[in-house]
Amino acid sequence: MIYKERFFKVIRKPHSSEKASSLVKKKNTIVLKVAKDANKKEIISAVENIFEVKIKSINTLIVKGKISNIKNKKKHAVRHEDWKKAYITLREGQNLDFINGSE
């Protein structure tokens, strides 16, 4: 059993991109940035308890951080931090809309 405080640490924020918005329309799938140490069971229970929706399936992946050079200091490359992304498919009839909100 996960404690309620952990629910809000597991889910970071919704991920918005062209691919994510097309998945919402076509396959009823939402994309979230989640804690890197969170497993699938924690993510499922956090989403179901916070947003009160039922989940059909979940896929997770770790996005590797980009390496970028600083213009003035070409000798030093900066590596951005890795982060974890979760593709969450909701069951039929379930809806979760981050963009428009509830009106």
TrEMBL record:
<dbReference type="GO" id="GO:0005840">
    <property type="term" value="C:ribosome"/>
</dbReference>
<comment type="similarity">
    <text>Belongs to the universal ribosomal protein uL23 family.</text>
</comment>
<dbReference type="GO" id="GO:1990904">
    <property type="term" value="C:ribonucleoprotein complex"/>
</dbReference>
<dbReference type="InterPro" id="IPR013025">
    <property type="entry name" value="Ribosomal_uL23-like"/>
</dbReference>
<keyword id="KW-0689">Ribosomal protein</keyword>
<dbReference type="Pfam" id="PF00276">
    <property type="entry name" value="Ribosomal_L23"/>
</dbReference>
<comment type="function">
    <text>One of the early assembly proteins it binds 23S rRNA. One of the proteins that surrounds the polypeptide exit tunnel on the outside of the ribosome. Forms the main docking site for trigger factor binding to the ribosome.</text>
</comment>
<keyword id="KW-0694">RNA-binding</keyword>
<dbReference type="InterPro" id="IPR012677">
    <property type="entry name" value="Nucleotide-bd_a/b_plait_sf"/>
</dbReference>
<protein>
    <recommendedName>
        <fullName>Large ribosomal subunit protein uL23</fullName>
    </recommendedName>
</protein>
<dbReference type="GO" id="GO:0003735">
    <property type="term" value="F:structural constituent of ribosome"/>
</dbReference>
<keyword id="KW-0699">rRNA-binding</keyword>
<dbReference type="GO" id="GO:0019843">
    <property type="term" value="F:rRNA binding"/>
</dbReference>
<keyword id="KW-0687">Ribonucleoprotein</keyword>
<dbReference type="InterPro" id="IPR012678">
    <property type="entry name" value="Ribosomal_uL23/eL15/eS24_sf"/>
</dbReference>
<dbReference type="GO" id="GO:0006412">
    <property type="term" value="P:translation"/>
</dbReference>
<comment type="subunit">
    <text>Part of the 50S ribosomal subunit. Contacts protein L29, and trigger factor when it is bound to the ribosome.</text>
</comment>
